[in-house]
Design goal:
The protein is an alpha+beta fold and 165 residues long. The protein has two domains: 37 residues; 110 residues, Immunoglobulin-like. Helices cover 20% and strands 37% of the residues.
Amino acid sequence: MEKKIIQNRHFFLFMLGAAALLALLIVNRTTAEDYTLPPRNENTQINQAAVPVGSRLQLKTRFGESWDWDTMQWQDVWTVVQWQDDKGEWFDVTGWQGNLDSIAQEEEGWVAVKEWWAADDVLGTGPYRWQAFSHPGGDLLATSDPFYLAGASGGLVMVDIELAP
């Protein structure tokens, strides 16, 4: 008798759950039908985010075999991009200064990278040079040869320097 009551209770709970689910589906369907979408112009095109235009400038900093890792880590190196005016004077480029971004071991040893984005309006300009310092305002470790930015959007200019303590 007790088993029959338990079975009836399970059946009752099952039916109650099924009824609640059915009621939820009916309410949900009614709500969805009552919701109206705003008018839509069929000729409207979807706005897509503008793809950034410009090119990349990448400094590859090679650490020489004599580099003393105990006295200076790669994260301490400070880089500055400079531009040259028509009188031959060099000036720091505002915003293109900072520590190296990453480091990896390559065939020729440890190489750290610093990368900047150059907008389309400065493509093809120059000359520029890259300088590496022991820290901001510290000792000059290396200066690259002069270079120009890529002439077309999507380009990449890589500038290599080697650091020696």
